[in-house]
Write a structure and sequence with these properties.
The structure holds three protein chains of three kinds. Chain A is mainly alpha-helical. Helix content of chain A is about 70%, strand content about 0%. Chain B contains four helices and no strands. The chains are: A mainly alpha, B mainly alpha, C mainly alpha. Chain B: Keywords: Cell membrane, Membrane, NAD, Quinone, Translocase, Transmembrane, Transmembrane helix, Transport, Ubiquinone.
Chain lengths: ~200, ~120, ~350
């Protein structure tokens, strides 16, 4: 019973915050609604019994990706009202995508002979004594080894790409060189003299 | 099978925590109206600046470096995400699984070396 | 506890609910009290190191100082700047404080005494602590003021930088315990050093990362010497500049609750949690919660001590420490620890 209530609570909130993400006028608000949507999606994942995925959803999407989004919308001074002016122009394409998605959802529901919401029991083909984190591990690093390594390569490419795109050398800065500082001895920097009275020091 | 009953306390805790902190924020606002400490004026409500009106919009553009840090963070976070299931299933997957991960880590170590050499990790 | 409430004639569900709510309040309310006292302790330790007396007027030894401060801010006016984004401005402290409370749900205080004994406890803590960024970023942005905005950006970059190395450090611990459950991690440390001591931190392989974790946890909670987010010489009071009254106090409370949490994590992950430091039967007569609190207080003393003695880092130094020192070392340590375990335990 509580599962059902929780499911409808999370599902409603996901949809509502998803809608608000689209309709919010302020882009920062959009991102924050998106975060709420991620959060509730994580709740749905927990209801499915996929606790590892739920935590990853929060750690990776909420904790990392959304921070980047927030940085971007806070940094770029984009006039979003102007972007929204293109709404009518992109409407046909958007509508087409929406229809395709809706049809897919209908098919998915049709294929899944409907029943009471007992999702945890339905999608969890894992032995009861193994936590699903462990179950993922047992498959990912043995059977799906190539996909896993490919994921590593993709991450590498992403990292290189990000650096190439955003990194720029700035001139005129004086970065700290610790090795240089540590190597420097008192003899290099100071000079002891004993000048005669009235003579002064020649620099 | 995940024990969902262990998650319900967290949900209830979330509700109580949000309620408690909302109470802490909104109750003083009510109290200050009752006690008469609530009397805002234009100068009090202006944003903090060193004794003069702000020259420009405070939400200025900032260095792209923050953006780069966020991207690098995502990548290393994902890498850590791949390490989590590996860490708990190490005894089941044996040397093969261990070697797989070492190759994966080597790929990312390569990325780290690249970032290092390019100076993307420097903050001047 | 459920059974005890059920004996009052409640149904099982109702008894469970009452027991859970009592459990939650038994965590949240003492935590707030603990925060009040720990702020006092912080000021006293800091004063003692600087040869001052610290708070000593309100109540015996100044013990009631924090409560007096609390009452004062409670009665003050909440100022919302006219340029601020009202809703978000008020939500930010709520997020900060909620997040600081939520993480405690999975902390085991004693054998079997934990609110939510989930399999992925450590991941839950990581997830919750990654949310802490939002309270800061939102407050900085919503204030619509220059200094909070800069501070929020700095804080966000700092927190995410150190989260990376914290993630890798945690993996080394998880490798040893073979689980994300904090109770299992604690129990795995029982007598793990020569059958005498119960502490991961005494393991020569884990000691270096226990030190790294301690330092990273200072950076993650933006404590001195990493308190660049509120470097008063540059940023006024950081992201809290525009806040007043209880909303300001919530940031304060949340910050200290996070500090205590990090102390607790240090204690649980590396120094045996609720287990007595020496695996010797008579020591188990002392309740586990007292051992845990003693360890938390010890770590808090270290935090305070560092705050009083170490000068503040510069931002480039902070970033270098995170990305160029901690990240490679913790990455290397994952390989080292897992290789060692493969050779000794799993083959």
């Amino acid at each position: 019973m509580i599962q059902t209530i929780a499911f409808y609570l999370f599902a409603t909130l996901v949809i509502a915050s998803g809608a608000l993400t689209v309709f919010a006028r302020n882009p920062v608000h959009s991102v924050l609604w998106l975060i709420l949507a991620f959060f509730n999606a994580a709740g749905l994942m927990i209801l499915l019994g996929a606790e590892f995925i739920a935590m990853l959803l929060i750690i990776v999407y909420v904790g990392a990706v959304a921070v980047l989004f927030l940085f971007v919308v806070m940094m770029l001074d984009v006039d979003f009202a102007e972007l929204r002016a293109g709404f009518v122009r992109y409407l046909p394409l958007g509508a087409l995508l929406a229809i395709v998605l809706a049809v897919e959802i209908v098919f998915a529901i049709g294929a899944w002979s409907a029943g009471a919401i007992n999702m945890g029991a339905r999608i969890a083909p894992v032995a009861s004594d193994v936590s699903n984190t462990q179950a993922i591990g047992q498959l990912l690093y043995t059977r799906y080894i190539f996909l896993f390594e490919a994921a590593g390569i993709i991450l590498l490419v992403a990292m290189v790409g990000a650096i190439v795109l955003t990194h720029r050398k700035r001139g005129g800065v004086k970065p700290q060189d610790i090795g240089h500082q540590v190597r420097r001895r008192p003899e290099d920097a100071t000079r002891l003299t004993r000048p005669e009275s009235g003579q002064g020091v020649e620099l | 099978m995940t024990d969902l009953s262990q998650y319900l306390p967290i949900l209830i805790f979330l509700g109580i925590a949000v309620g408690l902190s909302a109470l802490f924020v909104f109750l003083p606002m009510g109290v200050s109206r009752l006690t008469g400490t609530h009397n805002p004026d234009a100068a009090k409500l202006s944003e903090y600046e060193c004794g003069f009106p702000a020259f420009e919009d405070s939400r200025s553009q900032f260095d792209v470096r923050f953006y780069l840090v966020a991207i690098l963070f995502i990548i290393f976070d994902l890498e850590a995400a791949f390490l989590f299931p590996w860490a708990v299933s190490l005894q089941d997957i044996g040397w093969a699984g261990w070697t797989t991960m070492m190759v994966f880590l080597a790929e990312l170590a390569l990325g780290l070396v690249y970032a290092w050499k390019k100076g993307a990790l420097d903050w001047e | 506890m459920t059974a005890w409430f059920a004996s009052w004639g409640l149904t099982y569900e109702a008894a469970w609910l009452v027991a859970t709510i009592v459990g939650i309040l038994a965590i949240a309310l003492p935590l707030m009290l603990a925060v009040a006292m720990i702020i006092y302790a912080d000021r006293k330790i800091w004063a003692a190191i600087a040869l001052r007396r610290g708070p000593n007027v309100v109540g015996p030894f100044g013990l009631l100082q924090s409560f007096a401060d609390g009452l004062k801010v409670f009665l003050q006016e909440t100022i919302i700047p006219s340029g601020a984004n009202r809703g978000l401005f008020l939500i930010a402290p709520i997020i900060t404080f909620t997040v600081a409370l939520m993480a405690w749900a999975v902390i085991p205080f004693q054998a079997g005494v934990v609110l939510a004994n989930i399999n992925v406890g450590l991941l839950y803590i990581l997830a919750i602590s990654s949310l802490g960024v939002y309270g800061v970023v939102i407050s900085g942005w919503a204030s619509n003021s220059k200094y909070p905005f800069f501070s929020a950006l700095r804080a966000a970059a700092q927190m995410i930088s150190y989260e990376v190395s914290i993630g890798f450090i945690l993996i080394s611990v998880v490798l040893y315990a073979g689980s994300f459950n904090l109770s299992v991690i604690t129990l795995a440390q029982k007598g793990n050093i020569l059958g005498i001591f119960s502490a991961n931190g005494l393991n020569p392989l884990l000691f270096p990362i226990s030190v790294m974790f301690l330092i990273s946890s200072m950076a993650e909670t933006a404590r001195a010497p990493f308190d660049l987010t509120e470097a008063e010489s540059e940023l006024v009071a950081g992201y809290q500049t525009e806040y007043s009254s209880m909303s300001f106090a919530l940031f304060w409370l949340g910050e200290y609750a996070n500090v205590i949490l990090m102390c607790a994590l240090n204690a649980i992950l590396f120094w045996g949690g609720w287990l007595p430091p020496v695996d010797w039967a008579p020591l188990y007569a002392v309740p586990g919660i007292i051992w845990l609190f003693a360890k938390i207080l010890l770590f808090f003393f270290i935090f305070s001590w560092v705050k009083a003695t170490v000068p503040r880092y510069r931002y480039d130094q902070l970033m270098r420490l995170g990305w160029k020192v901690f990240l490679p070392i913790s990455l290397f340590w994952v390989c080292l620890v897992s290789g060692w375990l493969m050779l000794t335990r799993y083959s």
